[in-house]
User: Which sequence fits this backbone?
């Protein structure tokens, strides 16, 4: 069994009901499991991201071989695990009207430093609130509580497909980020199989 720890819901990266899972990172992990010749055990962690220490979430080395869920590569995650980068991304904004006033800022990634995003929103003179998931931001858009979202490009693209009539734009001036899968242990065989299926990033 290839055991994978992940948050229950972080579209478009992962979504899991505890038995099965879907999403961009799930597709990569499924390919890894097929190459290794074992089934995947999806270990959804309801407390994912609720405190500074991953051990408090239930995420421990004995719980999983791989970690998925839009992990941001930085000094903290590199100190905790072996990160396997697969994409670089930036920020984008989705709006549902011509002059947005009420912004949702997604701060839902492991080690995503949201200060830059908050500073950008403050500089636009927008009323903004932090949301822990694209699903909750989507509900706020549909209810009219929020009329725009600032998030990583991947999540804005997902939201755009769910909200007819919305528009999107890239946001410059905010730092680019690298997304990765994670491994607790330096399992050379598993690392080789993961690297064989994830996109190779060009050198910066």
Assistant:
């Amino acid at each position: 069994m290839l055991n994978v720890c992940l948050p229950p819901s972080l579209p478009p990266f992962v979504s899991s009901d505890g038995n099965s899972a879907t999403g961009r990172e799930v597709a990569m992990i499924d390919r890894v499991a097929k190459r290794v010749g074992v089934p995947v055990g999806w270990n959804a962690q309801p407390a994912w991201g609720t405190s500074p220490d991953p051990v408090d979430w239930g995420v421990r080395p004995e719980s999983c071989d791989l970690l998925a869920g839009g992990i941001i590569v930085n000094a903290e995650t590199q100190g905790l695990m072996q990160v396997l980068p697969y994409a670089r991304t930036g920020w984008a904004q989705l709006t549902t009207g011509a002059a947005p006033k009420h912004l949702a800022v997604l701060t839902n990634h492991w080690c995503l430093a949201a200060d830059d995003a908050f500073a950008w929103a403050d500089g636009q003179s927008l009323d903004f609130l932090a949301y822990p998931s694209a699903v909750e931001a989507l509900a706020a858009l549909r209810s009219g509580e929020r009329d725009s979202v600032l998030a990583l490009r991947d999540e804005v693209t997902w939201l755009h497909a769910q909200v007819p009539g919305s528009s999107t734009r890239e946001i410059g001036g905010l730092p680019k980020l690298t997304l990765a899968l994670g491994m607790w242990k330096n399992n050379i065989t598993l690392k080789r199989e993961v690297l064989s299926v994830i996109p190779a990033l060009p050198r910066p």
User: Anything to note?
Assistant: The mean pLDDT is 91. The two ends are 35 Å apart (CA to CA). The chain has two domains: 2-86+179-197, 91-171.
